[in-house]
Amino acid sequence: MANTHPDQDQELSTPRTPIVSFLGPVSSYTHQVYTLCDFQRPPWSIGLTDYDLAQAALACFESDQYNYTAAKTITDVFTAVQSGEAALGVVPFENSTNGTVIFTLELLADRHNLFPDITICGEAYLDVSHYLLGHKPSRNAATDSPDASGACTPTISIPAPVQPRTKPLRSLKHIERLYTHPQAWGQCEIFLGAYLKGIERIDVSSTSRAAELAKEDTTGTSAAIASSLAAKVHDLDILAKGIEDREDNTTRFFILKKGIDEEAVEEKVFVEKPPTTTIKTKSLISFTIDHRSPGALAQVLDCFRGYALNLTSINSRPSKVIPFQYIFFVEFEGSKLDDPSGRVKGALACVAKLVQSWRWLDLGLGFDIKELQESKEEMVDKISGDRTGRGWLIDKEIRKFNSRGRSLAQSSRVQSSTQAGLVESVTSRPANYVYDYLSPTNSHLLNISLADFLPEKCYPSGFKTSDLTLPAAKPDGGPSAAPTLPQGHHLVYFPPQIRSCDLLPDGTDPLQSPGPPYVRRMWAGGSLVFQRGGDRQIKLNATRAVCKEKITDVVIKGQDENEKVFVTIERRVGLLSESGSTAKSSGDLPTITFTLEKRNLVFMKEKTSAAAKKDAARPDKIVKPIHTPDVRIPITPSASLLFRFSALTFNAHGIHLDPEYCRTIEGHRNLLVHGPLSLVLMLSVLRSQLKSDEMILKLDYRNLAPLYATETLNVCARRDPEKKDQFDLWVEGSGGGFAVKATALIGKAGTNEGFEGSEALDKF
């Protein structure tokens, strides 16, 4: 018999108390979904126990069966449920006055597949009455009149302005700033416009956090819009009561959990409910469509009409993959878990045929708490009687969770689009135009960054470490005397024009991503083709230039968790006149391409943290080169070099900046050397091997294995002994094996003679 720790048996025999995560701090409206105090309860609830109220509010959070954890943000609630730290989560979804809570809708959109197992198992409605909280003025000032601010004064344009429902209890002249959750502003506009017009408004994560900040302001000039409970918790004065615009102001909350309890679902489907049950079911799905197809959205919505399913709400959020493409959210009455007529199943099958991708978010177990606002006897009978319907199902889930000490079974709700649909949707994206001025600055900074890692013979012509002065863009000899752009240095120009908030979670460009579930990106290889003629070399004389980026091919390989998406991006660099600086019509664009680059990126599915750490500890696979190089340049890239190159290329990818991210998310033991950086190093070494009248015409390369910071790599070059116009290039990792392989075509510089592949440069 195996030995066990004395505490282990105790732990196994004691049920683990489930955790409920809510948007905190304590006293937030989300917290009140299941902690309503007697003085706040509506008349129909007086005398009911907290357990009864919890059931009525769909939270089912009995105080002795659940622990409560306050989350700082709505994102933290989603994260706690997805990770299994919390069994259930409570988040606000919409308000009857101010509409949808955008923060929750953004997380349900889940563009980056961060919350694939989140489902909605219930809803709760809470009557919301806002209070203005703060510190009363130091002197007994008279109550402000609404007419004093001018907001309620009749004017020609507004002869009968709307009057607030309530007046302040104290003077508000001392208030200089207001804190609250963004959703609350729109619920109190009439009062704020009348009494606090022009006062600074500051968004915070929750109304209870607003109360905390008002409490912390010792000057007494801050106020918060929050609940009456927050006034008691934070010992704040109530400056005004019921400042919401409408008396029926109500917020709807979603109850989140991870996956589906399959056993409960099975019984829910096959156990016949009593004929007296009045529970209504609702479901929520999200989907994307081809926006180029006229009537695409109407066709999807017609699926619900065709199966006689009533739509109760429609929302949308930007996809952030293609500009002006949206993720749609549709809520309808019915559930595929309780679908005896097959109408829901039929409608969803119809939807699946018309959309690019879709996801089922709601278990369809919700019902309206307002339908339960009846007499105490009817309420108790519904909730604490024979536990039919939803109450029975939740009780069953609680018993199973407590007895087994485990989280609910996971079940992904994502319905992936077909491979053909993915290929079409990605390759049909419009071209992206990136503009830049080609001054010497970026190239010069790249030379400085590489100077300590390359021998002097690999420096571009004209660069010396003894004089790091920036070359002139317009020297005395005229524009033609300006320095020439070294081959490959175009990589530090034309940075992505993306705001930080639009970057993907790993810091990469969303315009190049196929989207979830392919959330990890690596550089697989590519090619370069350069203009040959002397009059077609790019001068760094501050000329306006453009880089046209277009996804030209998408290939899907592998299956299941090993499925990968290879995306080919074509980049054409051309020069512009100043008048064509922002034009995208064919008449205003360059007529030829100076540099043609193709990038092959591979996108992979997310790894578990355990799998990533295992991969990070795995030894490298080593395949050693068979040829002896003409030159071998050892380089030990530092973290600072990677940082500088990231800055020059405007590259925020975490694999180059965050070692912990590399180990725990991507499965690499250290920071990775950029694919473009290894390309620049190869081009630098290759230049050192060319004759004075030679130049690089073409280069094709493949990245075979990662290169790591602080580990010595070797850049190798070998001229083909039989084909003198070709070079073999490769980069060896720290173990001596192939990391990058490349072949280059060399030709005589300064001529207009064509070569294989040069015809692609004759257009833009």
* Average residue-wise pLDDT: 79
CATH topology of the largest domain: Thiol Ester Dehydrase, Chain A
Strand order of the largest sheet: 17-19-20-21-18-23-26-25-24-22
- What portion of the residues fall into strands of 2 or more residues? 15-25%
Coarse shape: elongated
Integer count of domains: 4
Fourth-tier CATH superfamily name of the largest domain = Hotdog Thioesterase
What report would you give on this structure?
The structure is a single chain. By secondary structure, this protein is α+β, with helices and mostly antiparallel strands. The protein folds into four domains: 17-128 and 369-404, D-Maltodextrin-Binding Protein, domain 2 (3-Layer(aba) Sandwich), CATH 3.40.190; 131-242, D-Maltodextrin-Binding Protein, domain 2 (3-Layer(aba) Sandwich), CATH 3.40.190; 282-364, ACT domain (Alpha-Beta Plaits), CATH 3.30.70.260; 420-762, Thiol Ester Dehydrase, Chain A (Roll). 24% of the residues lie in helices and 24% in strands. Strands 17-19-20-21-18-23-26-25-24-22 form a ten-stranded antiparallel beta sheet. Strands 1, 2, 3, 4, 5 and 11 form a six-stranded mixed beta sheet that branches. It starts with 5 loop residues before the first helix and ends in a 16-residue tail after the last strand.
